[in-house]
Design brief:
Blueprint lengths: L2 H31 L4 E17 L6 E13 L2 E5 L12 H10 L5 E6 L7 E2 L6 H26 L2
Antiparallel strand pairs: 1-2, 1-4, 2-3, 4-5
Helix pairs in contact: 1-3
């Protein structure tokens, strides 16, 4: 691999790290703001574990707790499916199953509703592990790219 290719790879790695950091910070900010959202009564419509793609290994899968709920706001019935801000997939089935077990169909729940965007709601408000993990992983990627860049520049 030539020097230009290695520098390009470091630049791409740096950009990817910054993007991951940015996405993670947006999700974390949304999670923080959800502490201030309105509490509404709701009910779980359906709750199940679904496969949402392949994981990192050869035989690994990722899973998602698909939880659909209904809540009322100003006389209107609204539906939601977001567990918490930034929730996507999990790399183990049991983690998703634990969420499904916490919110079985027919259960009355508290739904946290964004007062500025009433169609935006979550079942679990606040900051979660991936809100911290994504920005840290992105910063680590960016830092490694800077390290690669200076190491390559030193090997002229």
């Amino acid at each position: 691999m030539g020097k230009k290719s290695e520098l390009l790879m470091a630049a791409i790695f740096f950009a990817g790290g910054l993007i991951l950091t940015g996405v993670g910070l947006v999700d974390a900010w949304s999670g923080l703001k959800s502490y201030l959202w309105d509490e509404k009564e709701g009910v779980i419509i359906s709750s199940e574990v679904r496969s949402c793609g392949r994981g990192q290994g050869l035989n690994s899968k990722e899973y998602r707790a698909d939880i659909f709920y209904r809540y009322s706001l100003n006389g209107y019935e609204l539906n939601g499916d977001l567990l918490y801000s930034g929730y996507q997939c999990q790399n183990n089935r049991q983690g998703a199953q634990d969420w499904v077990d916490s919110f079985p169909a027919g259960t009355a729940v508290t739904v946290y509703v964004n007062p500025d965007k009433p169609k935006e709601a979550v079942l679990v408000n606040g900051i979660h592990l991936e809100h911290i993990g994504r920005p840290l992983a992105g910063l680590l990627m960016a830092w490694l790219a800077v390290f690669m860049f200076f190491k390559l520049r030193g090997n002229r």
